[in-house]
Backbone:
């Protein structure tokens, strides 16, 4: 049975192509949604870009026919801009205020009441990313859904970058003898991806084990190339951190993604690897460190000073880690060190659009606050001979339209896990302090 999907403004501002994801069903855009999109189109941020994209898509569909009468969509459904179901009387009985959200609810409710009178009524579903709008719709007796078409799956199912396999001890002995192990004879029930790490454990219960990684062709297991020596004074404190350093220091892997809770060492490991590659080995010309300018909690407003002074509050976590790595004792020492080196650049992602970045070691911190389009913009800036590291905690998102399963970082992890040019690792154990680990687990 075909359905009618009424879209809230936040769905289109989150994904302008959402109108094409409802297959054979009818998609309804209330007139008030167009008003809200029009109010956002001059914004210079991601919301403004999406508002302009929605406008262009609707303008292109307008050439097919009159939007208020309904136009066919490529997937077999129809799109309609609703002008007639705007009566507010029914909604006003529950929610007196004439707000934009309530006007959208009124359209969905009026459609619902109209369909109930027909011999074969269609289900009317309000699609919104606003939890309170969905709650209010439920109070009105309406079906409601979150927009989930862009989600990569549940966070618990996110590709971790490693797996543990119970094997006979003879297989572990075979690996140590030959220094490699074919994957096919293991007869696994799941797929191992390129550059995935594997921990072999003795199924007989002894302490015998081996740490390996899948080769680029994903047909055999090989030993790690790196020893467990310190990198710029930083040593791996657990198996996952060692896996992360293996990916960070491998010049044949231009894209590395690292996820993990606060305190697992993501930023420190990436900075240490970047300094080794840029300052010691001279493999890259510059170390570029960037973060999205997304506040946690209330924004701090406009800041005085030059660009560097304005960015300093947002970039302070980066400077904190650099101070630790350079053993800077006094306030201001790290600025003098960075000025003297000239090969380390700390930037906001605001300034990366339109650039081409060749021959650089690029670290993007807090990548979970980036949308799919923003992450595509950043990765597509990477020039010849560059390596990019995307890292963050999918459980700590400050962006209003993103969540753990729809942000740009998890999107890249899932889309690139089968590619031989990328590697991923999920850090699980906090190493900042016992208190930090306990806070990450309990709070």
Residues:
């Amino acid at each position: 049975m075909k359905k009618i999907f009424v879209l809230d403004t936040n769905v289109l501002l989150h994904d302008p192509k959402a109108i094409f994801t409802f297959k054979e069903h009818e998609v309804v855009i209330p007139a008030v949604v167009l008003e809200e999109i029009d109010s956002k189109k001059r914004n210079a941020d991601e919301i403004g870009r999406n508002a302009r994209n929605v406008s262009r898509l609707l303008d292109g569909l307008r050439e097919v026919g009159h939007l208020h009468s309904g136009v066919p969509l490529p997937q077999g459904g129809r799109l309609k801009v609703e002008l007639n179901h705007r009566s507010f009387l029914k909604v006003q009985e529950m929610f007196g205020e004439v707000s934009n959200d309530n006007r959208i609810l009124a359209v969905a409710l009026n459609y619902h009441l109209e369909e109930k009178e027909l011999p074969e009524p269609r289900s009317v579903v309000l699609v919104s990313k606003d939890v309170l709008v969905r709650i209010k719709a439920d109070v009105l007796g309406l079906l409601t859904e979150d927009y989930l078409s862009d989600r990569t799956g549940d966070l618990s199912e996110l590709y971790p970058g490693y797996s543990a396999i119970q094997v006979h001890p003879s297989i572990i002995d075979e690996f140590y003898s030959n220094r490699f192990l074919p994957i096919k004879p293991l007869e696994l029930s799941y797929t191992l991806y390129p550059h995935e790490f594997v921990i072999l454990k003795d199924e007989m219960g002894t302490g015998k084990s081996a740490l390996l990684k899948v080769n680029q062709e994903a047909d055999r297991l090989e030993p790690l190339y790196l020893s467990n020596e310190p990198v710029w004074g930083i040593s791996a404190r657990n198996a996952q951190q060692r896996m992360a350093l293996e990916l960070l220091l491998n010049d044949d892997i231009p894209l590395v993604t690292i996820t993990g809770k606060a305190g697992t060492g993501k930023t420190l490991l990436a900075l240490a690897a970047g300094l080794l590659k840029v300052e010691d080995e001279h493999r890259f010309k510059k170390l570029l460190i960037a973060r999205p300018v997304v506040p946690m909690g209330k924004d701090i407003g406009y800041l005085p000073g030059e660009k560097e002074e304005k960015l300093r509050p947002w970039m302070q976590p980066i400077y904190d880690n650099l101070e630790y790595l350079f053993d800077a004792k006094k306030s201001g020492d790290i600025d003098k060190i960075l000025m003297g080196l000239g090969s380390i650049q700390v930037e906001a992602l605001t300034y990366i659009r339109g650039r081409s970045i060749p021959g650089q070691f690029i670290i993007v911190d807090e990548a979970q606050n980036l949308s799919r389009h923003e992450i595509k913009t950043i990765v597509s800036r990477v020039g010849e001979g560059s390596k990019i590291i995307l890292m963050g905690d999918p459980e700590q998102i400050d962006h209003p339209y993103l969540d753990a399963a729809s942000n740009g970082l998890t999107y890249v992890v899932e889309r690139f896990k089968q590619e031989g040019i990328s590697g991923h690792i999920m850090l699980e154990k906090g190493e900042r302090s016992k208190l930090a680990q306990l806070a990450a687990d309990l709070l």
Notes: The chain has a mean pLDDT of 86. The radius of gyration is 26 Å. The first strand starts at residue 3 and ends at 7.
